[in-house]
Amino acid sequence: MGLITCGHMLEHPCTLIVVSAIIAWRVRIKICGLDGYGYFASFLIASFFFLLSLLSLPFFKFKYETDRTINWMEIKSVVLNGHYIYMYILTFHLGACVAFQVFWEFWYLDGLQASPLVMGAAALIRRPVLAAFLFTSCYVIERIGELNTVCVSLLLFTVAFFALSFSRVYWYVLAVDTLHSAGYGLAKSAFTLHFSKAGSKASSGVILGFESMCFILGVDCGATFIGLLFHAIGVRSTLLLYAGMTAIMLAIFLCYLKFSKHVNEYEKLPVDSDDDVDNSNANDDNKHINNLK
Predict the structure, then answer these.
(1) How far apart are the C-alpha atoms of 94 and 44, rounded to whole Å?
(2) Per the database record, which ranges form the Major facilitator superfamily associated domain (predicted)?
């Protein structure tokens, strides 16, 4: 459990990653008579950094938009729309796929006899790789659209889980890790852009909040099911199962994009400007709701 939490902490800033990896590698402890790495040091280092982060609170400035009125009818029409329900399900599945990289990858690397330095290198490499794909996602989305970008992401996750199921060398796991980062970066940008088009700016915060909620629920549920399946059917079978489920989700999504007559309209929904939101009347809101329906 400590190792999994240590892996989650390695998602934090680069300084914490490097320091935690070096100290855990240098410090050794005995557990039931067996020598082990000092992963406990990550808890102490993380608590110190969290304490330092509190010092920045007095310098934050918050601005609240009090002149916007949230149109709950518009939000209801979006949340209950069949297309966006399907998008929320895909967002949940994205979180379930990312759960392996967040919670279980370091446990998997430890099972392959990887040292804390290798785990630290994995986390350290992941950050610029993820940043690079988040940056390039705008060009990919501009070229092929956000929904096709989601297809590319699902394909990357399918290949990644399939490759992981046959990887028994931790260096190969680090290479496959780039596919996970690429899939996450592309899909997260695509879903955020797609849901931002679902309603007016006054309501987009709530709509995007539902998107974040589905993603976090997917991460937590995915991490839980991965652990249960690892124990029940084994590591390789679990990774193959996730690869198969992601491939099925990809096939269904491709069929939806191919045969749906109105899917392109959701990529072109106009987003109201701030002035339009502030000056909109009930007729404009009802017209937008009818378009969504």
Answers:
(1) 31
(2) 40-238
